[in-house]
Protein 1
Amino acid sequence: MTKLRAAITGIQGYVPPDILTNKDLENMVETSDEWILTRTGIRERHILKGEGLGTSDMAARAVKLLLEKTGTSPDEIGLVICATVTPDMMFPATANIISDKAGIKNAFSFDMNAACSGLIYSLVTASKFIETGTYKKVIVIGADKMSSIVDYTNRETCVLFGDAAGAMLLEPTTEEIGIMDSILFSDGSGTPHLHMKAGGSVKPSSIETVTAKEHFIYQEGQAVFKFAVTKMADVSAEIMAKNHLHAKDIAWLVPHQANLRIIEATARRMGLSRDKVMINIERYGNTTGGTIPLCLWEWEKKMKKGDNIILAAFGGGFTWGSIWVKWAYDS
């Protein structure tokens, strides 16, 4: 029987128009453009503004543009997965809301919560529905309105995050292209270092939790950095070794955009020069689920059919992993 693989056949990003620069942040917290740029590589980030606007609004824009770009009818979509840690609400799933806003009526949909690794977790999950022949057209979304959970009085975290969305179309192929292999990990012992303190079943929302600012991102930066810089680099090297790939075989590394130093460490571990690494953290910051699709969207015209691409991410949970993709089309 001919083996089916899931190929990425379209990619689309969306970033809101309002920009928050490092200079703006200098007026909000005790920080400087030089301090932020040196430690993170970030110069500016996009912020979703407007009454009643949430993650689904950015994601629906990306999905509509993707459908138009690929000539795909909403009725053809069988599954929608949204990777997000900033859902519109606790329930229903933001993927349900996105589907409704994008006119997708024949699909089932759900959210994936794996923090910054959510996009690659979602891609691997979606690929299995394709490989088994269950669905022929699947949309995977990475979207987050991180500004909704950032404390803009905390200089350690408010400089890091931005808002964005990206959407991918996956379809079956019998060619030697598409999602070739993946390695995923998680380690719940990392929870104390990166989490949101309140709002869940352990500590429900109350006037006390709101007053104590426990509905914002809590991060112990040094602990998270140390773990991330090791695990993202190791898993990227591991998937290369597992599939007998060498640096010369890799066209692009697409790393999660959390910190420039983590990205550079991953590239060094893989033996890749900087010109083979997709980096746009300077302009968008860490958009969590949105970083990898934003990179693919911006570099789409530079990729060629058959290019070996490594996707890599690390996120709260802790979660981390990598995917080997052979790109499916020439733009």
Note: The two ends are 30 Å apart (CA to CA).
Protein 2
Amino acid sequence: MTHVLNGVTPLNHLGIIRVEGEDAASFLQGQLTQDFGLLGLSEARLAAYCTPKGRMQASFVGFKRSHADILLVCSRDILPTTLKRLSMFVLRAKAKLRDATAEFDLYGLAGGAAEQAAPGLALPWSRADIGTATAVRLYPADGQARVLWVAPADEAAPAGLALEAEHWMWSDVRSGVATITAPIVEAFVPQMLNYESVGGVNFKKGCYPGQEVVARSQFRGTLKRRAYLAHAESALQVGQEVFHESDPSQPCGLVAQAAAAPGGGWDAIVSIQISAADGGRLDVGGPGGAPLSLQPTPYPLLADV
């Protein structure tokens, strides 16, 4: 049974890196998996920041407030480290980076509250300015609308019933789009979290750290892990290992994101070996641990080419 989502909740677990200056877009173009050079003012982008080996050290929802002012929304627990790493590569670029979390309020809108606040946004990653706020349409949870709302600090919250933060976190999981947090930094290349299938990788843009590894994973058929939705009756934690009964000595994947399910138990996004998803018992935390049942991804996967 689908749990009905409707309401507004503060997103205190997220923060904002602000990039300002005439080279803001070109600087990010050389660092992230997305094309910020061609990014318009009516759209946002999911993007990853990778190591030279293609491992994700951060993920963002990014958008332009103007062509010289870009906001990157990320998990607050990795923001200081990510900001420090990105800042090392500014060099002569006319771009200034700072932690702007205190300058904005972040809200999650779900269900009717999302539809009412941003009725013109139909597709994921579409965005609109509503007064001084920016609304970004996210991937849905079980078909229910979700919007990220970014407004200058101390403005009135968007209209809507109060939504429990735990229910928003669960909707994040059910959307199938994982956010990089501290326990999984450098654990995945983007395709292991299906980022190429949810608009998180642009294969036509120029160079960025890890590009060769990301491209090779896509075009040479070397990808062996994918992200799936999963359910367990006991509590799950990000970074827990997943084991398949065929080889209990080696983990076949990791829990990438997890939240308590309103109907009981826990739901998660797990990244596991494709072969392990074909059948057989899956346990979390170790062989004989909590049984894990897989569910289909809520979006089609981009076929390897």
Note: The chain has a mean pLDDT of 94.
Protein 3
Amino acid sequence: MTPFFLLVGRDLRLALRQGGDAAMVVAFFILTVILFPFGVGPELELLQRIASGIIWVTALLAALLSLERLFQADYEDGSLEILALLPLPLEAQVLAKCLAHWLVTGLPLTLTAPLLALLLHLEPAGYPALMLGMALGTPILSLIGAVGAALSLGARRGGVLLSLLVLPLYIPVLIFGVGAIEAEIAGFGARPHLLLLAALLLAAVPLVPFAAAAALRQALE
């Protein structure tokens, strides 16, 4: 496991050294949520009704912003070819990069979401479901995004292709994330939706690295 965590640390150091991706993701998340009350009006009931959807859709789009750089920088400077020669399997390297991506983007989004929910006057009963849903859902966004980033690696207009590949796969996460909050507020309990998110995460962790690694090998040939 030492090479695995060394790779996670390497990606974290690179991300923090550049600083742009993490700041851009959080800034986009905050600014987009702030703009919604200006667009739909300041009516309290309306904001409460659409708050969960606004937060999840914005978080999904914010996570999408940094996915293109997940493998692109290593591909452009030749580091990806060197990493592929390491004893650590490429599948484990994909998982390490996904973990680093989540720590830089998904975790800040999860921590920022309750503060933005206050701005949108989300019902207090929905906050636990929001936090748990984001904690389970944002890693899935990073994992699924890794497949799209690997498939679009080296392609012209890779960002557009990445969005087309990934956004349809994000829909179940969006549905269950919003559904958990709405069910908790309505008094039905968020447990079924959170369990479905957990099942998606458990399925993505073993399957995504193999799919992304296969796409990376194809890009390196």
Note: The chain has one domain: 2-220.
